[in-house]
Each structure stands twice: as C-alpha cells, then as structure tokens.
Design goal:
The protein is of the alpha+beta class and 194 residues long. The protein contains four helices and ten strands, in the order αββαββββαββαββ. It has one domain.
C-alpha cells in the first residue's frame, strides 16, 4: 500500500491545482430611470470579502464602499465634460456585542444577522438620485461609466499604511464603460453585464 502512495505522490504534484477565488466585486446590472425629479440610478452587484477584510471587520474596522456613476459628454473640439454623476458611499460595520452587521447609507441604516445578508444588501441599490451638472440633451450620445470600490482613504491610518504593501486590501469592480442616450420616462435604460 505504501508503494502505491509513493508512486501516486509525483502525479499529485504535477496535476494543476485549482483555487476558487471567492472575493471581489462583480457588477451584474445597471439601470437609469427618468423621473419627474430628474434621473435615478440602480445596480445589482456581488461583493465578496477576503479573509483579511473579514478579520478587519470583526475587529471593529468600518469598511466604506463607494459607487460612482458618471455621464460624460465627449466633444471633439474641447475637453470632455462630466454632465451628470452620482457618488454613493456605504459603511459596513460589525458589532460584536449584538453579533450584527450594520450598513450605514445616505438613505438609511439597517442591521443584518449575517455577513452574507449585509453584503447582499450592500450590493444592491434602487432609485438613487443622479446629480445633473450641465444641460442634458435627449439626442446626444454620452459615455457612461460605473465602478464600485473599497475606499481605503476612510480607514484608520495604520490600516492605510498596511494596505499600501498588500493586495489583500484592494477590493474593486472593473470599471464598466458604455455609450448611451438618455432614457425616456416610459422607457428606462437597463444594462445587464455578462
């Protein structure tokens, strides 16, 4: 029996090992809706923390996540102009005393019994206002972008220094970019990410 183990050992070392990376931010969809008050955005994403970020959370460190949406008017004769934007910041905290995860957003605060529930709520947003900075044109083609990331600048200084030397603290979605026209009130814009 031991001879078989010794014969199989080199084969196990040669076979490629697959490791599942269950961390990161993946944007699943985005929507932009015209309302009587302006425009509102929404998105669905999946956020998974690595072990380092989970440990920081359990030690009482607040993790701040930022979502930024921009509409850019691209002009060939002048610099690009950001005509609309929305920046949304959420704090995720763990309270050891109550064993609950707490999300603090500009719109509301809510507690969750598990990290999975808190991350699911963190990854969704509905009807968040978009700040229009310049006059928008219905027939214009705009460049749009969306990105979600962990904001290290809001963390305590010792963790910011530690984050400089480690990719364990870098948590960000890929920056999504696309061309679009403004949605009509009766026909919202919807982007599904593959």
């Amino acid at each position: 029996m031991s001879h078989i183990v010794w014969l199989l050992m080199p084969l196990l070392l040669i076979l490629p090992m697959t490791v599942v990376q269950a961390e990161g931010i993946q944007i699943k969809s985005f929507s932009l809706v015209a309302t009587d008050k302006g425009y509102e955005m929404g998105f669905d994403s999946e956020i998974m923390l690595n072990a380092t970020l989970e440990q920081a959370l359990e030690k009482g460190i607040v993790l701040y996540f930022v979502t930024k949406f921009s509409l850019i008017d691209s002009r060939w004769y002048w610099l690009n102009d950001e005509v609309a934007r929305s920046k949304y910041r959420v704090g995720l905290r763990y309270y050891a005393l109550t064993r609950q995860y707490h999300l603090n957003t500009p719109l509301l605060s809510h507690s969750y019994n598990s990290l999975r529930e808190a991350l699911q709520a963190l990854g969704q947003l509905r009807a968040y206002p978009v700040d229009v900075k310049s006059e928008l044109k219905w027939d214009a083609d705009y460049f749009a972008s969306l990105r979600i990331w962990l904001d290290l600048t809001r963390m305590p200084k010792p963790f910011q220094v530690e984050a400089l030397g480690s990719n364990q603290w870098n948590l960000s979605s890929e920056k999504l970019e696309w061309r679009m026209k403004l949605p009509a009130p009766e026909q919202p814009f919807y982007l599904k990410v593959q």
